[in-house]
């Protein structure tokens, strides 16, 4: 992961150029603050189900990233009742926050696979990203086990170098914020073969662009839940920053 530290001035620009633009627009009196070139149509509304399944998702900016909130609707994902914690709710909140962070960068189109508590098929999540010819795809989940805590990030195969680097960038920045345990970068499917399409990690195998799936702590870990709530904004910023740093290093985005 030493390679992540090689950029210097580009990262300074990445942080300060959006802030400079924001200050400039605020000084413009009655003018509307400048937004990224992505507009409300860049965020996918999956509520209409079959209707949306027929709609193509096209890129409107030079750099396109898809943020996928795991589960939704009748699929609650991991659930803990001590106290009540439902994965689909945490993933939607975090995905919305990450999208907001990414939208502060100029000429970035952010597409969300869901914005509400609705069920979206795994195939549809992949179709959204593939139709838009997205540059990166990041899926956000939470974990559960009888005993366990910490963050792990999954990619499809160890030989997928850019996917692995994306996971490493995000993990390193999450560690900087503070997580209970770094469970590492993992590959493939948990306890299932890659051809069993019902598993959540299907999205890594069936998107055409570099992707990763973040298991952002355990819903039945008090420490992980405390971190998720108290460091929520910092986690969202770390995920967004990891995405953008990888995009700069790979030449996908030029600040």
What report would you give on this structure?
This protein has one domain: Zn-dependent exopeptidases (Aminopeptidase). It contains 8 helices and 8 strands. Strand 2 and strand 3 form a beta hairpin. The protein is globular, with a radius of gyration of 18 Å.
- DSSP strand content: 15-25%
The assigned CATH architecture is 3-Layer(aba) Sandwich
Give me the count of strands: 8
Largest sheet: 6 strands, mixed
CATH class: Alpha Beta
Describe the SSE topology.
Elements: H1 9-26, H2 50-53, E1 63-69, E2 79-81, E3 84-86, H3 87-102, E4 108-112, H4 122-131, E5 136-143, E6 151-155, H5 161-177, E7 182-187, H6 202-206, E8 211-218, H7 222-230, H8 232-249
Parallel strand pairs: 1-4, 1-5, 5-8, 6-7
Antiparallel strand pairs: 2-3, 6-8
Please outline what is shown here.
It contains eight helices and eight strands, in the order H-H-E-E-E-H-E-H-E-E-H-E-H-E-H-H. With 255 residues, the protein is of the alpha/beta class. Helix 3 packs across helix 8 and helix 5 runs antiparallel to helix 8.
Question: Characteristics of this structure?
Answer:
8 helices, alpha/beta, single chain, 6-stranded mixed sheet, 38% helix, 8 strands, 255 residues
């Amino acid at each position: 992961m030493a390679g992540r530290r090689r950029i210097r001035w580009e990262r300074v620009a990445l942080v300060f150029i959006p802030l400079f633009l924001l200050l400039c627009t605020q000084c413009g009196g009655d003018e509307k603050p400048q937004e990224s070139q992505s507009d409300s149509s860049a965020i996918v509304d999956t509520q209409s189900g079959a209707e949306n399944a027929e709609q193509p998702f096209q890129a409107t900016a030079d750099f396109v990233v898809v943020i996928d909130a795991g589960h939704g609707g009748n699929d609650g994902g991991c659930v803990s009742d001590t106290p009540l914690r439902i994965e689909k709710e945490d993933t939607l909140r975090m995905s919305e926050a990450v999208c907001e962070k990414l939208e502060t960068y100029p000429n970035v189109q952010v597409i969300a696979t869901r914005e509400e508590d609705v069920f979206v098929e795994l195939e549809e999540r992949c179709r959204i990203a593939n139709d838009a010819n997205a540059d990166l795809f990041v899926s956000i989940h939470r974990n559960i086990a009888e005993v366990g805590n910490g963050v792990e990030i999954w990619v499809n195969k160890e030989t997928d170098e850019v996917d692995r680097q994306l996971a490493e960038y995000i993990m390193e920045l999450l560690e900087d914020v503070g997580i209970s345990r770094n469970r590492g970068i993992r590959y493939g499917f948990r306890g299932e073969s890659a051809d069993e399409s019902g598993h959540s990690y299907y999205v890594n195998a069936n998107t055409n662009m570099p992707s990763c799936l973040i298991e952002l702590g355990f819903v039945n870990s008090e420490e992980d839940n405390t971190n998720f709530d108290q460091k929520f904004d910092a986690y969202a910023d770390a995920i967004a920053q990891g995405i953008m740093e990888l995009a700069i290093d790979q030449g996908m985005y030029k600040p």
